[in-house]
Design a protein that fits this description.
The protein is 6% helix and 43% strand. With 404 residues, the chain is mainly beta.
């Protein structure tokens, strides 16, 4: 058994030493002083705590309280990871256990092979009481058993600096004393940035600017001028909107969870034109206006089964494009429009088109194939003001965008 119980000596750890840093990557990355990390902790900024027993790595905690996030990974005496617990915020000032994974395997297997052959259990909680369990008794080599139940997740208050006893207890450790390490034998290295990022999903970037006629932006040292074009009106008889590649409506036509009153709504296309080559245009975004009230906040449009807590750094849930085109269509219209894309001729010129009597609005997708998010704009009353399919034409201030 590799549960970690053998690490404690008669079931009790008297003392753990802690090393502070930017992260762990086969060693301590960018060591930090306790004073510096205490200031980071108070400000909610990210840091990593490596916990030692008898000079060897016992656990690694990646912490970012501003993001209401903590990930704890525990290791056995052979350096093999035996558990990983991820905590996320409840929105009420505390955190809950989002996901817990454990590995239990033969003692003579090395750390690289161990996660593939060890028995694996992964438990995922939803904040309001849904629990799912996946058990793989033989790792990669055997069966997979899934079950679902109703059980509220364990919850903890966000702890003060180095007051991590409850966190460690949640991961399976007995009561411990934590002290700062004076010396340690761990490898140390420097890196230009931490080896991990807090889970900060992609946020909308300059959406309002994209629909400001005459605005100019820079891309790769070239100037582009923006314009907003009317693409006509879209019929939304069911109130359930789909954004998708029109060539994939037969297998990727799930509507967004947020619905609007059935109706016919105007669609605008944001175009970017290269100042030094006016014949070269690209679609930056498409907007479906539900009302004429301005959006004061933006949220990612989600489909069934999608949860923002599953997104990591700069990730998003979006729709895939393989034919260089995207579209808005109502859920009740999608089935009869699965072949319309064949008539669009790639939307080279013009870059957008309304089909039929307004059953679909299609446009060319930014720089081409890829994955693209849709944002929902809400007005000051909390009502839906618009949907914006973002073609991610321009780089954001953040790095490493990634679609989930």
């Amino acid at each position: 058994m590799s549960t970690g119980d053998d690490l404690y000596g008669h079931g009790v750890i008297a003392r753990l030493e802690v090393v502070y840093c930017d992260g762990w990557d086969e060693g301590v990355v960018n060591p930090l002083t306790a004073t510096a990390v205490q200031a980071r902790d108070a400000a909610g900024e990210p840091y990593t705590a490596v916990l030692l027993i008898d000079g060897r790595r016992h656990a690694v905690m990646d912490v970012s309280w501003a993001d209401e996030y903590c990930r704890m990974s525990r290791f056995d005496a052979a350096g093999r990871q035996v558990s990983c617990h991820e905590l996320r915020g409840t929105g009420s000032g505390d955190v809950f256990l989002r996901r817990a994974a454990t590995w239990d395997g033969p003692p003579d297997v090395g750390e690289h092979e161990f996660p593939h052959v060890a028995a694996r259990t992964c438990t995922t909680y939803r904040l309001f009481g849904q629990r799912s369990d996946v058990v793989e008794p033989r790792g990669d080599r055997g069966d997979r058993h899934e079950s679902r139940s109703i059980q509220p997740p364990p919850r903890l208050p966000i702890p003060g600096f180095r007051r991590w006893r409850e966190l460690l207890s949640l991961a399976g450790d007995p009561p411990v004393e934590i002290i700062d390490a004076v010396h340690h034998p761990l490898p140390v290295r420097t890196a230009p940035r931490p080896p991990w990022r807090p889970p900060r999903p992609l946020r909308p970037h300059g959406i309002e600017l994209l629909f400001t006629p005459g605005a100019q932006v820079e891309y790769n040292d070239r100037q582009l001028r923006l314009s907003a074009q009317s693409a006509g009106r879209l019929h939304v008889p069911s109130g359930r909107l789909i954004a998708a590649d029109p060539s994939s409506l037969d297998f990727d036509a799930e509507p967004f969870n947020v619905t609007v009153p059935p109706g016919t709504y105007p669609v605008s296309i944001s175009l970017a034109t290269f100042v030094d080559d006016p014949r070269h245009t690209r679609v930056t975004a498409a907007r479906l206006d539900i009302s004429d009230r301005p959006a004061v906040r933006w949220e990612l449009a989600l489909r069934d089964g999608q949860d923002p807590l599953d997104l990591g750094h700069q990730q998003f849930f979006g729709f895939g494009v393989d034919a260089g085109m995207a579209c808005f269509v109502d859920a009740d219209s999608a089935d009869r429009l699965v072949d319309v894309w064949r008539t669009l001729d790639g939307l080279v010129e013009p870059r957008y088109r309304t089909t039929g009597s307004g059953d679909m609005v299609a446009w060319s997708s930014g720089w081409g194939d890829g994955a693209y998010p849709t944002w929902i704009g809400y007005d000051a009353s909390g009502s839906v003001a618009c949907f914006v399919a973002d073609m991610l034409l321009f780089p954001t201030d953040s790095e490493d965008e990634d679609e989930e």
